User: Which sequence fits this backbone?
């Protein structure tokens, strides 16, 4: 296991407020939350970015995220939340271990804030074709 803060949490070297754990996934409260109930969901597999993650670990995370979201909504009473996952330092990944944030959004001043600047899709047909070919090979 990598020597990141998440590796240390997985090994029990750093304490955490664990919420969920199975053979592939650990979920715990973020120690620097953006809002009450902010969770981190990590694979036990030591992958740095999403594309490095095995199908098995990715499926395990995919199965648990909706369950965690339902529990988060019940406990916090918040109807809105964000799921955030960053890959690479340039995309704001602060810990070199795949992780998902579940962040309750109780109001405009709490939770995740972001600016979304959409652009016009150009070359969509060709790009779709290239991506489809990349998936096949």
Assistant:
């Amino acid at each position: 296991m990598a020597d990141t803060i998440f590796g240390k949490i997985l090994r029990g070297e750093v304490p955490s407020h664990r919420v969920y754990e199975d053979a592939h996934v650990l979920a715990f409260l973020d120690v620097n939350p953006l809002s009450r109930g902010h969770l981190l969901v990590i694979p036990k597999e030591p992958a740095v970015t999403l594309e490095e993650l095995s199908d098995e670990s990715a499926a395990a995370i995919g199965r648990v995220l909706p369950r965690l979201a339902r529990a988060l909504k019940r406990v916090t009473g918040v109807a809105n939340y964000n799921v955030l996952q960053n890959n690479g330092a340039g995309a704001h990944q602060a810990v070199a271990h795949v992780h998902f944030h579940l962040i309750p959004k109780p109001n405009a001043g709490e939770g995740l804030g972001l600016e979304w600047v959409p652009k016009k899709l150009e070359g969509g047909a060709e790009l779709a074709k290239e991506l489809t070919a990349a998936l096949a090979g």
